[in-house]
Amino acid sequence: MVLGYSRMMYIEFAKRCDIHSFLSCLIHALQYFGGVPKTMLTDQMKTVILGMGEDRKPRWHPLFEDFCRNDRNVSESLPRPATANEGQGGTGGPIH
């Protein structure tokens, strides 16, 4: 994870690339930074984005969606797709 303004990084290696490992690493990153950023931007990693809907919006993994809505109070609404000018070219969309 890289913070947008300060470019501060958190790196963690994991043996698995599943949603549970991803969420664990994400929680560790948020703990390391000392909080939850206002916006997080993901790329189209298959761990969190299951595909694109007919409306061209991402279909988020249910556990990731639940994490964003409830577990960490990251989001009150579903994430929206990113535009080409947001983040570092990520197309999964920011999480508000």
Task: Explain what this protein looks like in three dimensions.
The protein has 96 residues and is α+β, with helices and mostly antiparallel strands. The strands form 2 sheets. A two-stranded antiparallel ribbon has the order 1-4. It has a two-stranded antiparallel sheet with strand order 2-3. The C terminus is likely disordered.
Short account of what is shown:
This protein has 96 residues and is an alpha+beta fold. Helices cover 26% and strands 14% of the residues.
Give the topology.
Layout: H1 19-33, E1 40-42, E2 49-52, E3 58-60, H2 62-71, E4 93-95
In total, how many beta strands? 4
Oligomer: single chain
| Overall residue-averaged pLDDT value | 77
Which stretches are poorly predicted, pLDDT < 50 over at least 5 residues? 72-94
What best-fitting shape do the alpha-carbon axes yield? globular
Offer a few descriptive terms.
96 residues; alpha+beta; two-stranded antiparallel sheet; two-stranded antiparallel ribbon; 2 helices; 4 strands; 26% helix; globular
